[in-house]
Amino acid sequence: MKCNNQNCNYDIDNICIDGLTSEDCPNLVDFSQLELVTPDSITEVDDRGVYTDTLNAQQSGATEKTLFPGQIPLSIDEVQTRLKDRLGKIVSFIGPVGVGKTTLISSLYDVFSKENETQVLFGGSDTLYAFESSCHHARVTSRGSTVSTPRTSSTEGVGFYHLSIQDSKKIRQEFFLADRSGESYSEMVNNLSLVDSFEELLRSDLLLFMVDSSSLVDNKQRHRARRTTIKLIQSLFEYNTLPKNTNCAIVLTKFDLVVEENNETVCMSEAKRIVDDVQKYLDTPIDILSISARPNSEGHARPDFFKILWQKLESSQRPQKKCPLNKYKTNRSFHNLELMYEY
């Protein structure tokens, strides 16, 4: 019980300031006896930005209702539908938990809101709200000691962020940036049968394998980080799951933290060891790119990185399968007449 009189401490010492009993005091309120009043409709919003009218949903059987298109990343079916209408490229960001996959995807969009040297113009997005929702956390925390970006849940599967750009050659290109949780990739390494279910990898024009730079210079973590990355790449190519001429690149995240400690030479050396080890599985060279922990923050800006990355995205193209052509010889008159007509 609690008294409505601010000067009374009945809830602490059980003594009424007016000397009345609990039954006689009109200011004492027993909150356990209050009836909970609920509104006619209760709206809940989940972390994807989707709201559910719980009361009406129970009455009508409805589960959820999307506010508007573009508020969440695209599904694989939605991407396939768009690729039928317009040519586009799929880029997969691959790496363990906390390496910065979602942060980098958000930065590729956020760079258009600032001066940059990418020579790329923003042309729209079908996931604009999803981009803004992801970038909001990084913008709010950009002045803190760490930058916070919502992590991708393993239960969500793969989601695609869409970017339409005009490249340096004034050509419009469509990009679908695949984001999947790090837990899913760790599970895939332990169970190679899951590789075929990662449809975005089989369709990707570019695979970006992301590595935490700080782990490569830590004596206690470098061997594990290098071994984990090698095993991840090996699991995709060793059994010919992906073509050996697939476009790949190693992305070193949080590279500014390594530079501050003057360990960039050690970091690049460890990254080259990874490339040398996995190069035997590939027929194409693997580039090594680096990005800071806060690519769009003052003092940590790396405009050259985004320029190099966008050049890599523009030039990447999914390798085409080579199908052998069988030449048949025929003496049929119709075929001979057709050949004569062509000449």
UniProtKB/TrEMBL annotation:
<dbReference type="InterPro" id="IPR027417">
    <property type="entry name" value="P-loop_NTPase"/>
</dbReference>
<feature type="domain" description="Double-GTPase 2">
    <location>
        <begin position="90"/>
        <end position="279"/>
    </location>
</feature>
<dbReference type="Pfam" id="PF19993">
    <property type="entry name" value="DO-GTPase2"/>
</dbReference>
<dbReference type="InterPro" id="IPR045528">
    <property type="entry name" value="DO-GTPase2"/>
</dbReference>
<protein>
    <recommendedName>
        <fullName>Double-GTPase 2 domain-containing protein</fullName>
    </recommendedName>
</protein>
<keyword id="KW-0614">Plasmid</keyword>
